[in-house]
């Protein structure tokens, strides 16, 4: 018999900002993956942590807080705007989106983006209107090929 490690009840996480945050079993299953646990080691403030070591905030707890607030937000919409027909599945999807929004971050957060992406993808350039590499666009070729 294989016993599932999936919790069947919601679990409560304590947070210094949001207090008790209750997450459904599917979110707990995602939290328990190596991919999500990796966020414990990614500094929210990039290299700022090395200058201000007390300013420690990692993508892990940040993402838990985002999932919590996303859930509160969509539950508020469901309560106050019943015409939107928001389902429990919708709420779960919004919570998962909040939880996972930073899973793709590299080490040192956005500092990594500015240093690594230009090296790894010289064919892309940052979009100044987005102040970062989100939605990076292909560079135009420097020289146009002329057909004779
Ligand atoms: Zn984030």
Automatic annotation (TrEMBL):
Recorded GO MF terms: dGTPase activity
SUPFAM superfamilies: HD-domain/PDEase-like
GO CC, alphabetical: nucleus
Coiled-coil spans in chain: none
Domain of life: Eukaryota
Bias-annotated ranges (Basic residues): 139-148
Pfam families noted in UniProt: HD
InterPro entries registered for this protein in UniProt: dGTPase-like, HD/PDEase_dom, HD_domain
Location of the region described as Disordered in the Swiss-Prot/TrEMBL record: 128-148
Record domain HD: where: 59-148
Gene Ontology biological process terms from the UniProt entry: dGTP catabolic process
Family stated for the protein in its record: Belongs to the SAMHD1 family.
Entry protein name: HD domain-containing protein
């Amino acid at each position: 018999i294989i016993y599932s490690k999936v919790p069947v009840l919601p679990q409560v996480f304590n947070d210094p900002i949001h207090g008790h945050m209750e997450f459904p079993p599917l979110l707990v299953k995602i939290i328990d993956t190596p991919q999500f646990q990796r966020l414990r080691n990614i500094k929210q403030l990039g290299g700022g942590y090395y200058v201000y070591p007390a300013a420690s905030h990692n993508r892990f707890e940040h993402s838990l807080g985002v999932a919590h607030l996303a859930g509160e937000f969509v539950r508020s919409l469901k309560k106050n705007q019943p015409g939107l027909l928001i389902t429990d599945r919708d709420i779960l999807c919004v919570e998962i989106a909040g939880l996972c929004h930073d899973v793709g971050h590299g080490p040192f957060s956005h500092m990594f983006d500015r240093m690594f992406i230009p090296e790894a993808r010289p064919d892309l350039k940052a979009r100044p209107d987005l102040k970062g590499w989100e939605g990076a666009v292909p560079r135009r070729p420097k020289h146009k090929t002329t057909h004779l």
